[in-house]
Specification:
Keywords: Membrane, Transmembrane, Transmembrane helix. With 350 residues, the protein is mostly helical. It contains 14 helices and two strands; from the N terminus they run ααααααααααααββαα. The protein is 63% helix and 2% strand.
């Protein structure tokens, strides 16, 4: 997402680095659900011990809520910075959704068994489909999946007027109702994590992970025929499709890295992964700070990002390649910083 969120020119972006305009799915649309899926997997690993100690559940839930609220607060800070206009701040957001989903999915894992988790997951997917496809939208009429008149958009605009994504103003891609199926994405990760933790043959675990990955992907594509795959609405078909692909990816990584022992290529990903939230937060903060730093040029005053981009990138590359090169520069810039942190064992935990 650092690559996606930091182009040199928002009007010059290669198609795979864009979100789908509405229905459909691009490679960029896989990043967020993959992250929530692996959050679910990590919950199964991190809280397994706490799950076996019911007498400490209240303390564990307190830590879960504090961590989730910290993520929410970081997302809200990014939305406020640098103007801190509270009356118009966007309340939903990526970090905010991660925080909420983490709290709900972690508590469900802690307090329920696998069968109940499957029932909750199925109920959320089917219930969200029923709400979006069959419940009339108040003040509008029949149910629909249009950007501004669907049930999720109505709820966002009703409960958070003036505090939604500035590009739409009346609905939000990380809105209230669509957070429910986002929890389902994490719960699939929770189930996958519990499967991986089983004391079983590695080949058997990989095989079933792959089988269920194919099943979920196919079910998502079939459901897409009636309830289209849509990242902004986080439709039930999108949950199954992306979670299926995530399971296939996880199974492949498990086979290559843990079973076959091919680990040397993983270092750059590990460097980013151990400080994932930190780099996501800072990569959103630094461009805002650069926008505040002004540089005088013969053409007038511009912000420092525009000055650097137009001085070192646009004169030498085509518009699309210049925009991509700027984004890649950010990837390598953060890689250097994160590599130093990794070597010094500096891991900022949220």
């Amino acid at each position: 997402m650092i690559l996606v969120n930091n182009p040199g020119n928002w009007g010059k972006i290669y198609a795979p680095l864009r979100h789908a305009a509405w229905h459909g799915c691009t490679p960029t649309d896989l990043v967020f659900p993959f992250f929530l899926f692996i959050v679910g997997v990590s919950i199964a690993y991190a809280l397994s011990g706490a799950k076996l100690a019911p007498e400490n559940h209240s303390k564990t839930i307190g830590r879960i809520i504090r961590r989730g609220l910290t993520l929410f607060a970081l997302g809200l800070f990014l939305a406020l910075f640098p103007k801190f206009e509270f009356e118009a701040v966007r309340i939903p957001g990526v970090l905010q959704r991660i925080g909420v989903v983490f709290i709900i999915a972690a508590i469900i894992f802690l307090k329920t068994e696998k069968r109940t988790q499957i029932i909750i997951l199925s109920s959320v997917l089917v219930g969200y489909w029923v709400l979006m496809m069959f419940v009339p939208v108040p003040g509008i009429g029949e149910s629909n999946l249009l950007p501004t008149t669907n049930l999720a958009a109505w709820l966002d605009n009703t409960l958070l007027p003036g505090h939604l994504w500035k590009s739409t103003k009346v609905w939000d891609p990380e809105g209230i109702l669509s957070t429910l199926p986002a929890v389902a994405t994490a719960l699939i990760g929770v189930l996958a994590g519990q499967w991986l933790k089983k004391k079983d043959d590695a080949g058997n675990k990989i095989a079933w992970l792959m089988v269920w990955g194919v099943i979920c992907t196919c079910l998502g594509l079939i459901w897409d025929l009636h309830f289209p795959i849509n990242k902004s609405l986080w439709t039930s078909s999108y949950v199954l499709y992306t979670a299926g692909l995530a399971m296939l990816g996880l199974g492949l990584c498990y086979w290559l890295i843990d079973v076959k022992g091919y680990q040397r290529f993983t270092t750059p990903f590990l460097v980013y992964g151990v400080n994932a939230i930190t780099v996501f937060f800072l990569s959103g903060l630094i461009p805002r700070i650069m926008g505040m730093i002004k540089v005088n040029t013969p053409a007038g005053e511009v912000d420092s990002k525009t000055f650097l981009y137009e001085s070192f990138y646009t004169p030498h590359l085509s518009p699309y390649n210049a925009s991509l090169a700027w984004a890649l520069t950010w990837i390598f810039f953060w890689m250097i910083i994160l590599w130093v942190m990794y070597k010094k064992n500096i891991i900022i935990k949220v």
